[in-house]
Amino acid sequence: MGKTLFDKLWEKHVISGPAGQPQLIYVDLHLVHEVTSPQAFEGLRINHRQVRRPDKTFATMDHNVPTKDIFNIQDQISRKQIETLQQNCQEFGIRLADMGNADQGIVHVIGPQLGLTQPGQVVVCGDSHTATHGAFGSIAFGIGTSEVEHVLATQTIWQLKPKTMGIHLHGQLQPGVAAKDIIMALIAQNGVDFGTGYAVEFFGDTLQQLSMENRMTICNMAIEGGAKMGMMRPDQITFDYLRGRKYAPQNMAKAIEYWQQFYTDDVSDYDRVIDFDVSQLAPYVSWGTNPAMAVPVTGKLPEITDMNIQRAYNYMDLSPASKATEIPIQWIFIGSCTNGRLADIKEAAKVLKGKKIAPNVTAWIVPGSRAVKNAAEKLGLDKIFKDAGCEWRDPGCSACLAMNPDKVPAGIHCASTTNRNFEGRQGKDARTHLASPAMVAAAAIYGHFIDIRQKEAI
Amino acid sequence: MDAITIHQGTTIPLMNNNIDTDQIIPKQFLKNILKIGYGKHLFHDWRYLDDGTPNPDFILNAPERQQATILISGDNFGCGSSREHAAWALKDWGFKIIIAGSYSDIFFMNCTKNGLLPIILPQAARQHLAKLAPDQVITVDLPQQKVSCPDQTYFFKIDATWKNKFIQGIDDIDLTLQHAQEINDFEQNIPTFN
Ligand code: SF4
User: How many CB atoms are closer than 10 A to CB A148?
Assistant: First the structure.
C-alpha cells in the first residue's frame, strides 16, 4: 500500500508516540495574532518558560485592528490587547508585523505572501482558518490558546493522526464560477461536519486552472466542512508563487527537490474519496446561518424540514418560497482570509469597473494585507472602487468577525466574501450571505444577487 | 488542570445541532487578556435581551438550573472558530461535562486542555437525558466510561490518552519537556535550503 501526501508529511514530523495514539509532532511555523495569544504568553511568564524557537514564530495584528484611522484605537480593551502583543513580542524576541508595517495583514494572508508558509511544513496558528496554508502542501491547522502556549514553549504539539479524505476536483470551471463556489458547493452538498476527523486533500485536474490564491480560498474553508486541515500537492504553480518572496528559501532548487517527494501515491490510499465534477457548477450563495445552508444562485431556497432550518429562516427573515436572486442586499463586504488577496480584489474590481453601486447599498473593500493594499493601489483598483461608491479601507479582519468597530447593522443583509454566516458573526442580528468576490461585487450594483455568468445579458 | 474521575451533577439540555463557538462566546468578549471571567458572557446573544436583561425563555437563565454542571447538546458542538474562550466560558459558568453527538476537532482538543470532559452519546441517549427533571442528578463515571441516571446507564468511548489526562489532570508542557532530548535530536535533522 502507498501513502498519501498527508501520511508522508506526518511521518516526517513525528517525534514521539506510537501510531494510534496522540503523537508529538514538530511545528515548523507558528503564526501568532493578538486575540488568542495573551493568555499563552502569560502562562509562559508564570512558569518561567521561554519561547523555544522565536525564529520559527511570527506575529501580526489582524482581528482587532482598525481599518480606518489605524493609529487611533477608540476601544480601550482592543488597545490593551494590541499593546499586549507588542510587549509580548518584544519580551520573547518574536518578529512582529505591527500596525502600519508593510508586512502587516491578516495572518493567513501574510504567511504565504511573505514566503513563510512553505511546502513540507507543519504550520499552526491560534485560528481555525490556518487550513489556508495547506494549499502549499503543508499540514496546517488551527489550535487553541493552551496549544499556542505549548507550541511557544516546546515547538511541538500532541495530535492524534486523523483519517485522510481525498476530494477529486475535475473538469473545467465555467467563466464566472470561482474557487469559492467549489468549496461552498462541497459544503452545501456534504454538510458542515463531513470532514470532522479527517485531513482533507484536494486533487485532480481542476487544480491546474487555479492560482495559489484560488487554492488558498478552497483550503481556507475546509474547516467550514469540519476538516481542520485542507491541503494540496505542491507543484510548479506553488514553486513559482514562492520564488523570490521575503522568507522563501534562498536555494530554491534544493528546496524544490525536497518538496517534490510530497504527493499521494494512489487514490486508493485515502480512507475516503469524494468525487466532484466542477464543470456544471453554478455560483453559490448562502441563505442561512451556517455555510452548508447555501444554494446555487439559479436555485430556490430549501423547504423547512427541521428545527435548525426553521431557526435559520427566522434569523435571516427569509422564506422557502424565495429565489436566491430575490434576497435583498443592502451591504457588501469584500475581504478576509478567504477572499482578501490581490486576485480576489482584482476580480471584484473587474465587475465594478465603470459601474455604480445601488444607492441603498453600503460597500466596504478591505484588503487582506498592507501589501495587497499597496499592490491594488499601484494598479489603480482603489480608484475603481471609490468611483463606484465603495469605501476602500486599511487591512485587517474587519467585518469578517466584527470584533473592531466594523460591523454590519442589525437586520441588514450583507453579501460577503468571508467564510462564516453564523448568527451575529458580522454584527448582532446582521444577516450574512457568503459568495465569491465577483458575485458580491455584482450584488452591490444590483442590490441583489445575479448569476454572474449572465452578467453581460442583464 | 482539574482532574475528573466520578462526577455527579444536574443537567441543562440545549439540543440544537452545530452550536458554534461564536454563539458560545461572541467575539466582543475575546478582547480580554485573561483566562477567567467569561462565564457571565456564555451564550450571550441567546441569554440576554437587547436591553441587557436576562432572557427568561433561555434555559441557562432558569432559576432551577443554576447549579447544573452537565450540558447536553446536539451534533457538531463547538464548530467554527478555534477560540479556547468557548471552553473557558463553559468552565467558568460551572460546566464540567458536555454530552453531545459529536464535536469539532479543535473544540475537543481545547476541552482536553481545560478539564472540560467532552462525552459522545447517541441521540436516543441524549434525548432521554434531556428530559430529566432540573434537579435530577446524574453520574458520570470516567474510569468506567459510563453515564447513569436512575433508569438507564449509557457507556461511552474515549481515547485512552485523553482519558488518563482527565483523570490525572496533567500539565501538557511538563509532559512534553520530558521529550526534550528527542526534540533536540529532531531539530538537528531538519533540512535547510540556504
Ligand atoms: S479574516 Fe475572518 S476568518 Fe480570517 S482570520 Fe480574520 S476573522 Fe478569522
Answer: 29
Q: Where are the domains of chain A?
A: 5-275, 284-457
* Residue A305 near chain B (CB below 8 Å): no
C-alpha to C-alpha distance for A232 and A240, rounded to whole angstroms: 15
Q: Give per-residue pLDDT as tens, A379-431.
A: 999 999 999 999 999 999 999 999 988 999 999 999 999 999 999 999 999 99
Q: Determine the distance separating the centroid of ligand 1 and the alpha carbon of B81, expressed in angstroms.
A: 9
A388, A390, A393, A396: CA torsion to nearest 10: -120
For ligand 1, atom 2: residue with the closest CA: A400
User: Which class would CATH give A5-275?
Assistant: alpha beta
Share of chain A above pLDDT 70, in %: 99
Domain B6-188 class in CATH: alpha beta
Annotated binding site of A for [4Fe-4S] cluster: 337, 397, 400
What is residue A354's predicted lDDT score, i.e. its pLDDT? 96
Pocket test for ligand 1, best of A33, A408, A419, A425 (most atoms within 8 A of CB): A419
Q: Give this prediction's pTM.
A: 0.92
- Cα of A220 to nearest chain B Cα, Å: 12
At A458, is the pLDDT very low, low, confident or very high (cuts 50, 70, 90)?
very low
- Using one digit for the tens of pLDDT, what is the confidence trace for A364-378? 999 999 999 999 999
- Please name the fold of domain A284-457: Aconitase; domain 3 (3.30.499)
Phi/psi for B146 (5° steps) reads -140, 150
| Chain B residue numbers touching A160 (CB-CB < 8 A) | 159, 161
Residue to mutate among A64, A194, A196, with most B CBs inside 10 A, is A196
Opening angle at CA A310, ends A196 and A320, nearest 5: 105
- pLDDT of residue A103 exceeding 90, the answer is yes
> With an 8 Å Cβ cutoff, are A311 and B23 in contact?
no
* Residues composing chain A: 458
